[in-house]
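Batch queue: ligand-bound targets. Current item pairs a single chain with zinc ion. No template structures supplied; prediction is de novo from sequence plus SMILES. Inputs echoed for audit trail.
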Amino acid sequence: MSGADGMRIFDSHVHLADARFAGMRAQVLARAAEAQVNALLVVAAEAADWPHLLRVRRRFPQVGVAFGLHPWFAHGPHALLRLPEWLRRGQALAVGECGLDFGAGRASRAAQEALLLPQLKLARDMDLPVILHAHKSEDVLAMHLARLPGLRGVVHGFHGSQQQADKFLRLGFYLGIGAAITYPNAQRLRALVASLPLDRVLLESDAPDQPPFGRSRPNEPAFVLDMLTVLAELQRISVEAMAELTWQNAASLFGMPNTMRLNDGRLAAAHAHCVG
Ligand SMILES: [Zn+2]
Ligand SMILES: [Zn+2]
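Prediction returned. Tokens below.
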């Protein structure tokens, strides 16, 4: 990409602990740095991910972490109780990934709410943003958020309606934009994303899930360049300006601690032997 020197891109949502990245994490981070994706927020889905994330965070200065309990998984009775301690130990930038998913075959609404609501309250009490997963649940989720004034965060991989987007924006939430917008047939979502306020959008890979249009599996943070390019096109601003805006949005939502800093390819390569 010419003229892109000095561009910095923030991948606000990546599952680096996922087993599909086993043995290739260092290379994945090196490729991200080459693609100027030089800050990543690594999110957890289960308690088993937490120690792994802590190791990644210690070795890679460009990685921030979030600990949470995802609605797709069954969690042990102590996972919720241990969450505050892990958030502190890991100097987490957010609580997540958590949320509600009312797709077929998922846990009951009551069970999911029993898992989510304590995490929302914890985020508010610890003054941390929350990273939310929403599928066929946007209205219920917005209702819960409205009951917790002061809570802030992002609805990641947003794919709801305009009305639902407006609800989350009115609540002060950010919307995470991922690979879905790169698919030419995603007309409705693309039209919605084209008019989102620029100070409320975050870029995300959600890797290793859903790669962008035309890319092979697994998805990885370097591919955020594709999301960035389409987002810039839809919003009719330059790729460089969009990279900077989404960087600033992520930095402002998650805070940018001193330990997390800009990285370059050389540093990532130097660390390449550390994590498998
Ligand atoms: Zn999700
Ligand atoms: Zn996710």
